[in-house]
C-alpha cells in the first residue's frame, strides 16, 4: 500500500492528461441527456467526485445507479444516456451484468478499468484505461485516484473548455506530492478517537466517502462521511461524545461558507476538527475533482501509518479480498 499510494499522484497526472477524443468519437456522449455511474466501494467514491464535476461543466444530471438494478432487477430505461462503469478489476459479476443490462436498455457504456481485457470492458462501447499498473494491496489507492483522472479526461474530451483545466491540474501534480504537514497530528487524533467524521462538499464529499472507507478497511476505525450541510442535522448530536472530524476542503470558493459553518458548529460541540486543503502543500487553482484527488493522495499515507500504529496489516485486512464478488 505504501508503494502504491506513493505512485498515486503520477497515475492521476497521466490519466487526467490523456486525450480520449478519438476513443469517444461517434458515441454521441456530448449529446447525452443524462449520465449515470455504476460502481462499488472506492470506485463509487470516485464516481461521486466525478458527478459534481460533470454536472457543473455540462449542466446535465449525473448520479449513481446501484448495480442491483441490473444484477438482480430488470433494469431501467437509459435511452440517450451515458453510463460510466468504474471498476479497478472489471471482474465483479454484478458490474458485468450492469454493463450488459445498461447497453441493452439503450445506454452508451464507457468502462474505466485498470485491467485490459476485463469482462466489464468486453461489454462496453469504449474503455478508458486507468493505467495504474498492478495494484496488490487490498485497499485501493492509485486506482481510485487514477479513476478520477480518467473521468476528468473523459469530461475534457466532451467539453473543450474544461480540457485546459484538466491538463493544468495534471501538470501540477506530475512531480508527486510531499507529506501533509499535519500528518503526525492527524494520525494521533485518529488513534485516540473512537468515532470519526469525514466531511466535505461538492467533489470533497466523494473524497470524504473514500477516506471514511479507508479508515474502516485499513484501521478498523468507525468513520462516517457527511456533507458539511447534512452533518448539521441529526449527526451533529454525536459531538456530545469524543469525536474527531477531518474536514476536506478542495478550495472551491462556493463551498467555503458551508465548510466554515460546519467547522464552527463542530468546534462549539467540542469535536477535534482538522481542516485539510491542497494549499497545505502549496497547490492552488486545481480543478475541483483534481483537488479531491490530491486530498486522497495526502491522506492515504496517514491511513496506512494509523493502521500500522494499531498493529494491523493494511495490505491484507483480515476480512477483505482484492476482488469482491457480490450481487
TrEMBL record:
Keyword Transferase attributed: yes
Annotated GO biological process: carbohydrate derivative metabolic process
InterPro entries: GlmS/AgaS_SIS, GlmS/FrlB_SIS, SIS_dom, SIS_dom_sf
Keyword Zinc among record annotations: no
Keywords annotated in UniProt: Aminotransferase, Repeat, Transferase
Domain SIS: 24-168, 186-317
Molecular function GO terms recorded: carbohydrate derivative binding; transaminase activity
PANTHER family: AMINOTRANSFERASE-RELATED, GLUCOSAMINE--FRUCTOSE-6-PHOSPHATE AMINOTRANSFERASE, ISOMERIZING
Name the record gives this protein: SIS domain-containing protein
Origin species: Histidinibacterium lentulum
Amino acid at each position: 500500500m505504501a508503494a502504491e499510494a506513493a505512485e498515486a499522484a503520477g497515475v492521476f497526472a497521466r490519466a487526467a492528461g490523456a486525450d480520449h477524443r478519438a476513443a469517444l468519437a461517434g458515441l454521441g456522449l456530448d449529446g447525452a441527456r443524462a449520465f449515470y455511474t455504476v460502481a462499488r466501494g472506492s470506485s463509487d467514491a470516485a464516481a461521486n467526485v466525478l458527478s459534481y464535476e460533470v454536472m457543473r461543466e455540462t449542466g446535465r444530471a449525473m448520479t449513481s445507479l446501484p448495480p442491483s438494478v441490473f444484477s438482480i432487477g430488470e433494469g431501467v430505461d437509459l435511452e440517450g444516456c451515458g453510463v460510466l462503469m468504474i471498476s479497478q478489476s472489471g471482474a465483479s459479476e454484478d458490474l458485468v451484468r450492469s454493463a450488459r443490462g445498461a447497453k441493452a436498455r439503450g445506454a452508451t457504456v464507457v468502462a474505466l478499468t485498470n485491467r485490459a481485457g476485463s469482462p466489464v470492458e468486453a461489454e462496453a462501447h469504449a474503455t478508458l484505461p486507468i493505467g495504474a499498473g498492478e495494484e496488490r494491496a487490498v485497499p485501493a489507492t492509485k486506482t481510485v485516484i487514477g479513476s478520477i483522472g480518467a473521468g476528468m479526461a473523459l469530461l475534457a474530451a466532451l467539453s473543450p473548455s474544461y480540457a485546459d483545466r484538466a491538463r493544468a491540474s495534471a501538470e501540477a501534480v506530475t512531480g508527486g506530492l510531499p507529506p501533509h504537514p499535519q500528518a503526525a497530528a492527524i494520525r494521533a487524533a485518529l488513534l485516540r478517537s473512537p468515532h470519526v467524521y469525514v466531511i466535505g462538499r461538492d467533489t470533497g464529499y466523494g473524497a470524504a466517502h473514500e477516506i471514511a472507507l479507508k479508515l474502516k478497511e485499513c484501521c478498523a476505525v468507525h468513520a462516517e462521511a457527511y456533507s458539511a450541510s447534512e452533518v448539521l442535522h441529526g449527526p451533529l448530536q454525536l459531538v456530545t461524545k469524543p469525536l474527531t472530524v477531518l474536514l476536506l476542503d478542495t478550495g472551491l470558493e462556493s463551498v467555503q461558507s458551508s465548510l466554515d459553518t460546519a467547522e464552527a458548529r463542530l468546534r462549539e460541540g467540542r469535536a477535534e476538527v482538522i481542516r485539510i486543503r491542497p494549499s497545505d502543500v502549496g497547490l492552488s487553482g486545481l480543478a475541483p475533482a483534481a483537488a479531491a484527488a490530491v486530498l486522497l493522495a495526502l491522506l492515504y499515507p496517514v491511513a496506512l501509518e494509523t493502521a500500522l500504529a494499531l498493529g494491523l496489516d493494511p495490505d491484507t485486512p483480515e476480512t477483505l479480498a482484492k476482488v469482491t464478488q457480490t450481487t
